[in-house]
């Protein structure tokens, strides 16, 4: 509703309340009343004109002041300019640093339409307006915490609308930029994802630099062959081809596993820290992943030095995983039935799951057959989940190269064992021996050894060994099962191997936990950013700050670049878990 | 006669009233003119002042720039 700025008061000058007395006096009364009202109008007009002239005079005075100061500055400037000598132009770099940056002292008009800068005449008009009904008194009866008055009238409505619009646009711009920066990275991850298992950072880095170089080259106007196509297809082809033959090499199949590894990382803290596997099969699967990862990392840490040396073989020697199958693989047979995990069942499951689950565990010996009367679901989960890896290893354990590799690992482990303080570790339970026996059984050189009787694992259960120990014990044999055969035959150093493995495993677990924590920290940082953003949003209440923020975001290209590069560095840590 | 005098009185009053109304009309018209003039004066003054303000702001910026340039030299010199 438009409001006139100045209203001359009595609008209808002739209207008034007249008493009907006699006719002749009537006309005079009307005339006199009209004249008085006209005089009131004139007074009002005079007041308004005084106000008007006063405003104009104030503004002109301001102008005059500014013009005077400007004139003074111009005079001073002209004097300075005449005094300037054009020859003295020795600008030294040191002096440049001493100078203050130029900062304009000019203040521009702000809040032109706010209530504070409203002209007095307008303010008076506003004050004559009816006040809105005191709906804000009903605020205490509202559940949603909104201001009741804002449903009636909200002076800030349009500003809020504009603010939200602008802020959302800013956020969208930021997100777009973020996505644009991260898209190529994710693609490169997908293409180069697997790499060598032990060093996740390694393969990623070259591809990034390649991408960068390529983009730089393209930026320079060169045309390049579509390297990526050539680069990727061999992987997939080789991967598919090698799955049946070598049951995949670790080189190529890292990509499909990646999402799962992330999943692992999420589920890991719950499962590992509690050390208790809930009954649901799904959870068991999750629970088993971290352990697999541990095995893998342990194995890789042990194997890495040699994989460097025997690079042609080292990589293929690494665990086979049909990673593609794994994500969709259903969890092992649910142990909920208690006795469901019979040896037959587990054996039947192993071949199919062998490729999918055997990530990093080709060296592991086959698990002992699961006792028929297992009571704890966790045991079943461990047993069943471990099978695949071990069985797949067995298939490959036949190759002499494999045994060579294992021997190398064994030698390394033995050298490490000597350095380990066994006292720190829990005394190795007798069970591991029994668990070992399966490895002997399955390992090609020592087929004669009979599979472990199911009763022994039961005894293991009854011994009350901690859940943490169990997986370790079960896992321990793998890396060196070829060498273990000899040791088992000699029957001496086997217990030492266990603590060693366990120690290593716990160490790796610590690493893993650390990484996980770092990952969680990273997420927290992002959340903190979000919080800060929200705080900023809530704090942005004036136009200047909003626009300044928008401009800052638009100008922050270089900063965000550096941030992204940092995140690129950080991500390998996250996914390496 | 009485009716005639009464009618004349009424006619005179009506004439007087017409004269008064005309007078009032003149006054109100002049008031309107004053307000119109004041409004136009206000508008023109404000527009001129605004243009002047614009020019002054521009000049101030230029002077700022010039002062910064000259002060830079003057600072560097010693």
TrEMBL record, chain A:
Compositionally biased spans, kind Polar residues: 344-359, 391-404
Any one GO biological process: actin cytoskeleton organization
Annotated Acidic residues bias: 556-571
Record keyword Cell inner membrane present: no
Signal peptide: none
Cellular localization per UniProt: Cytoplasm, Cytoskeleton
Keywords recorded for this protein, A-Z: Actin-binding, Cytoplasm, Cytoskeleton, Phosphoprotein
Pfam families in the cross-refs: WH2 (PF02205)
Disordered, as annotated region: 174-223, 248-290, 310-404, 555-577
Occurrences of domain WH2 (ranges): 480-497, 508-525
GO cellular component terms attached to this protein's record: cytoskeleton; SCAR complex
Gene3D superfamilies the record matches: 1.20.5.340, 6.10.280.150
GO molecular function, one term: actin binding
PROSITE patterns to which the protein is assigned, alphabetical: WH2
Complexes and interactors: Binds actin and the Arp2/3 complex.
PANTHER family xref list: WASP-1, WISKOTT-ALDRICH SYNDROME PROTEIN FAMILY MEMBER
Entry's family note: Belongs to the SCAR/WAVE family.
Function: Downstream effector molecule involved in the transmission of signals from tyrosine kinase receptors and small GTPases to the actin cytoskeleton. Promotes formation of actin filaments. Part of the WAVE complex that regulates lamellipodia formation. The WAVE complex regulates actin filament reorganization via its interaction with the Arp2/3 complex.
Protein name: Wiskott-Aldrich syndrome protein family member
From TrEMBL, chain B:
GO terms for cellular component: cytoskeleton; SCAR complex
Molecular function in Gene Ontology: protein-containing complex binding
Location relative to the cell: Cytoplasm, Cytoskeleton
Keywords: Coiled coil, Cytoplasm, Cytoskeleton
Record InterPro entries: BRICK1
Top-level lineage group: Eukaryota
Coiled coil: none
Signal listed as a keyword: no
GO BP term, example: regulation of actin polymerization or depolymerization
Family, per entry: Belongs to the BRK1 family.
Protein name stated in the entry: Protein BRICK1-B
């Amino acid at each position: 509703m438009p409001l006139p700025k100045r209203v001359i008061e009595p609008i209808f000058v002739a209207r008034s309340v007249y008493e009907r007395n006699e006719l002749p006096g009537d006309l005079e009364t009307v005339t006199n009343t009209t004249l008085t009202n006209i005089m009131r109008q004139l007074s009002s007009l005079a007041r308004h004109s005084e106000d008007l002239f006063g405003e104009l005079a104030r503004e002109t005075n301001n102008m005059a002041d500014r013009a005077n100061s400007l004139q003074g500055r111009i005079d001073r400037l002209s004097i300075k300019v005449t005094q300037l000598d054009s020859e003295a132009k020795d600008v030294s770099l040191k002096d440049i640093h001493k100078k203050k940056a130029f900062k304009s002292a000019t203040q521009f008009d702000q809040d032109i339409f706010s209530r504070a800068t409203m002209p007095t005449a307008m303010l008076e008009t506003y004050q004559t307006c009816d006040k809105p009904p005191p709906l804000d008194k009903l605020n205490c009866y509202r559940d949603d915490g909104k201001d009741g008055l804002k449903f009636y009238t909200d002076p800030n409505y349009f500003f809020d609308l504009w603010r939200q619009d602008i802020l959302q646009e800013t956020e969208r711009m930021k997100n777009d930029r973020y996505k644009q920066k991260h898209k190529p990275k994710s693609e490169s991850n997908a293409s180069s994802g697997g790499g060598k298992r032990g060093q996740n950072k390694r393969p990623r880095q070259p591809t990034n630099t390649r991408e960068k170089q390529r983009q730089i080259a393209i930026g320079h106007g060169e045309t390049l062959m579509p390297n990526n196509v050539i680069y990727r297809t061999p992987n997939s082809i080789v991967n598919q081809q090698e799955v049946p033959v070598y049951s995949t090499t670790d080189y190529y199949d890292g990509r499909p596993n990646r999402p799962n590894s992330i999943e692992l990382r999420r589920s890991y803290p719950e499962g590992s820290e509690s050390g208790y596997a809930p009954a649901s099969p799904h959870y068991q699967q999750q629970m088993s992943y971290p352990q697999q990862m541990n095995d893998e990392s342990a194995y890789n840490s042990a194997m890495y030095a040699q994989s460097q040396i025997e690079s042609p073989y080292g990589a293929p020697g690494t665990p086979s995983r049909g990673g593609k199958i794994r994500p969709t693989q259903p969890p092992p047979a649910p142990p909920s039935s208690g006795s469901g995990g019979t040896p037959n069942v587990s054996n039947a499951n192993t071949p199919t799951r062998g490729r999918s689950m055997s990530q990093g565990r080709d060296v592991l010996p086959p698990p002992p057959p699961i006792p028929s009367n297992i009571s704890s679901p966790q045991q079943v989960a461990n047993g069943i989940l471990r099978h695949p890896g071990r069985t797949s290893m067995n298939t490959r354990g036949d190759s002499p190269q494999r045994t060579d590799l294992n021997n190398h690992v064994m030698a390394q482990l033995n050298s490490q064992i000597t350095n380990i303080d066994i006292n720190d570790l829990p005394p190795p339970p007798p069970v591991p021996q029994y668990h070992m026996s399966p490895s002997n059984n399955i390992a090609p050189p020592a087929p004669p050894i009979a599979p472990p009787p199911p009763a022994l694992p039961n005894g293991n259960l009854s011994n009350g060994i901690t859940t943490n120990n169990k997986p370790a014990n079960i896992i321990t044999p793998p890396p060196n099962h070829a060498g273990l055969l000899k040791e088992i035959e000699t029957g001496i150093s086997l217990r030492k191997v266990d603590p060693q493995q366990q120690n290593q495993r716990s160490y790796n677990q610590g690493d893993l936990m650390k990484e996980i924590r770092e990952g969680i920290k990273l997420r927290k940082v992002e959340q903190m950013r979000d919080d800060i953003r929200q705080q900023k949003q809530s704090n942005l209440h004036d136009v200047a700050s909003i626009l300044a923020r928008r401009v800052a975001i638009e100008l922050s290209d270089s900063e965000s670049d550096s941030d992204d590069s940092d995140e690129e560095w950080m991500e390998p840590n996250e996914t390496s878990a | 006669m009485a009716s005639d005098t009464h009618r004349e009185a009424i006619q005179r009053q009506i004439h007087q009233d017409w004269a008064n109304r005309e007078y009032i009309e003149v006054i109100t018209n002049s008031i309107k003119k004053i307000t119109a003039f004041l409004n136009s004066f206000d508008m023109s003054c404000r527009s001129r002042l605004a243009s002047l303000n614009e020019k002054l702001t521009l000049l101030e910026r230029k002077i700022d720039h010039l002062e910064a340039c000259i002060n830079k030299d003057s600072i560097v010199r010693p």
